[in-house]
Specification:
The structure is a homodimer of 419-residue chains. In chain A, 33% of the residues lie in helices and 18% in strands. The first copy, chain A, is α/β, with parallel strands linked by helices and 419 residues long. Chain A has a five-stranded mixed β-sheet, sandwiched between helices. A four-stranded parallel β-sheet of chain A has the order 7-8-6-11, sandwiched between helices. In chain A, strands 9-10 form a two-stranded antiparallel sheet. Chain A is elongated, with a radius of gyration of 22 Å. The longest helix of chain A has 22 residues, at 156-177. The first copy, chain A, folds into two domains: 5-142 and 305-357 and 391-400, 3-Layer(aba) Sandwich (Rossmann fold); 156-303, Phosphofructokinase domain (Rossmann fold), CATH 3.40.50.460. Chains A and B meet through helix 6, strand 11, helix 10 and strand 15 of A and helix 6, strand 11, helix 10 and strand 15 of B. Chains A, B: Substrate binds at residues 142-144, 190-192, 247, 297-300.
Chain lengths: 419, 419
């Protein structure tokens, strides 16, 4: 047994499959116990590294770790905590290296989105600068699908499948009632800046004629008159209209349709409530009976409806991260590469972190249909493979079974640290 | 082949399994083609009978009918249309009998909730009065679980499973992020008058300590101060608080927490938006970061997560309705009887419609825990069997497959009728 230990942390908003990545990291570390000692997990992400709250994953049974593959949420705790900039708050980064040193941590696996890719890169550079031998590998995760380089982000395929399925199911409900009841149904999907998740609603039907009859993307400025005219036309043509709206839907000037006015720890505005806002417009302008749903966390936690492709990819990037470490790589992120579209096949390539950090990937204009109210066939060809296959979790007593972990922390060695 | 035809109609809000009842009715009719001729389905429920828009189900393939078992929504169209009172609008009822006469319809299967049970009973009585030999059988359906006599209503078990599963999944999400992000999560569930659906959220955990840490039922008057104190205590104890709130949550004086001010065709107020209303109170009174979800139609359309028990029961009441007709019964509703709790077993009994019509079954006080913020063990024992078992639909191309019907209407024989 070596004393070269490893550290794994989950960062930012969790997904239905981030624990599948954790499973990939942990199981692969266990396979290489000759070269990787103990894998510690940060309690509540990077905060656990700063405060030296390190969970000893070696105390978890193989069975518990395997169950992570079908458990939503972040099993070790995640956080919305952005490290301050390295120039003025260097001590925070130095503290991390100190903790790593104190526990012989040579491998740092950071499971997150764009912000954490940036943190991962900074830590890698600082350790080099400080002469501490650390390999920092980023494990891609985000429901928003906005990471660059990688063809798609683990976590997205499952939320896409959830939104497409929910749209199909709800549309059948509305279709059967519309003669005397609800004419307009609005489903609000996540996606602050990029419309990927809302766009996936299009997969509910095989044609662009819907349902959904309209998708409102952040990429296309909201024009109330045009939107209402389109809804009205759909009701007149089909008897009802199903709309999927992105929480990031905004006006030409960038103002969000519904802006709660709050900001989260990363300085992003806290959104929510676009669906009722839009419903209010429908009522005012068209007078149709409406219903609306806001899926919120349900969509990104819905492991019961995960995409099998997504689960496999989430596991694979975790596994590959450990292999990268063993191959001596540093400051890389295993990325998914689309090798073929029909039939869909993919492989993993190692992307240098400086090409990933702090970049957002938006929906390309080529995927958006001409009227702006949905996606075209190119968009469908991109999205469809990502929702393929089911990977139902085991059920017990009528409910999905989830991993039960001990989450025991090791003794601290360093003085207390205040965030 | 006999010329004694049958008529089937779906009524009111649809469910994930109302088509499973349709499947039970149609398949059982087909088995008895010596005694039951053609089964017609009303296009958009009872409206189809009034307007003589009769779908010829004999044109559908066995395969298409079998697929109804896993298709949400109302395949033949449903409606929110309450027949006016028989004293002053007798002509409407007489029209129904005329249509039935014109098409040799001797069996009337009406698939709905309490309001349609009442309609079914009235039609049965009027036909008797008019000397037309009609057997009217009610097929129970409602997500609200508020039908009397029957132990539970087909449609409820699946929405209960959806709410319990979604609560469990979302709670894992919040638990993993609460140290730096959302502290209070609110899920709004359906249930205008009875708290059954919200109560099912309790099944997300095996204990009454949650999550969910609080369920707000219409049966328990809303007291803002007590509710906020409970949320605050949960956040302080667990780090976060998950609340499931019924859309019917109301103040002592009966005012709904969020009242959109609209009424539907039955004169019920159109609700929605309790979750954001409650979230606003959390923000104002406690200042915690919150998120909220409104599942709306998603919950009652979620056939992908149906309870196997519910699907079986929905099919069984449809099947039994036809058997009742063949046994010469009239004005009855096949009801589910709980024969044993552990292990759960059930059977079907035929309940006279006069005992069913226009009665609502509320959550009994014995199921509500002492503080009013959830259910107790007796409530769990009642609810748990209803969400047991999975009955995943077939998936194709990443999405649940649904029935594809021809829905061809037969030629009209009578003068046009205006609603």
């Amino acid at each position: 047994m070596t004393s070269n230990n490893a550290f794994y942390a989950q960062s930012g908003g969790v997904t239905a499959v981030i624990n599948a990545s954790a499973c990939g990291v942990i199981e692969t570390c266990r396979k290489h116990s000759d070269r990787i000692g103990t894998l510690y997990a940060g309690h509540n992400g990077i905060i656990g590294a700063l405060t030296e709250e390190l969970i000893d994953t070696s105390l978890e049974s193989d069975e518990a770790i395997a169950a992570l593959r079908h458990t939503p949420g972040g099993a070790f705790g995640s956080c919305r905590y952005k490290l301050k900039d390295i120039e003025t708050h260097r001590s925070q980064y130095e503290r991390l290296i100190e903790v790593f040193k104190a526990h012989d941590i040579r491998y740092f696996f950071y499971n997150g989105g764009g912000d954490s890719a940036d943190t991962c890169l900074k830590i890698s550079r600082l350790s080099e600068h400080m002469g501490y031998p650390l390999q920092a590998i980023h494990v891609a995760k985000t429901v928003d699908n906005d990471l660059p380089i990688t063809d798609n982000s683990p976590g997205f395929g499952s939320v896409a499948k959830y939104i497409a399925t929910s749209t199909r199911e709800a549309a059948l409900d509305i279709a059967s009632m519309c003669s005397t009841s609800t004419k307009v149904f609005i489903l609000e999907a996540m996606g602050r800046h990029a419309g990927w998740i809302a766009a996936a609603g299009a997969l509910a039907s095989d044609t662009n004629d819907g349902p959904p009859h309209m998708i409102l993307l952040p990429e296309v400025p909201f024009d109330r008159q045009r939107v209402m005219a389109h809804i009205d036309a759909a009701v007149k043509k089909h008897g009802y209209c199903v709309v999927v709206v992105s929480e990031g839907a905004r006006y030409e000037d960038g103002t969000f349709l519904a802006d709660a006015g709050n900001t989260d720890a990363f300085g992003h505005r806290q959104l929510g409530g676009v669906a009722p806002t839009l419903a209010g417009m429908v009522k005012q302008d068209l007078g149709y009976k409406y219903h609306w749903a806001v899926a919120d966390y349900l969509q990104r936690a819905a492991r019961h409806l995960a995409s099998a492709v997504d689960v496999e990819q989430a596991y694979a990037v975790g596994q590959r991260a450990v292999e990268c470490a063993l191959e001596g790589k540093n400051a890389v992120m295993p990325a998914i590469q689309r090798d073929s579209e029909e039939p869909y096949s993919w492989s993993i390539v190692d992307a240098p972190l400086e090409r990933v950090a702090n970049q957002e990937k938006f929906m390309p204009a080529e995927y958006i249909r001409e009227d702006g109210f949905g996606i075209n066939d190119a968009g469908r060809r991109y999205l469809s493979p990502l929702i393929q296959g089911e990977d139902f979790p085991p059920f017990e007593n009528g409910l999905p079974k989830v991993a039960s972990l001990r989450l025991e922390q090791i003794a601290k060695k360093l003085p207390e640290y205040h965030l």
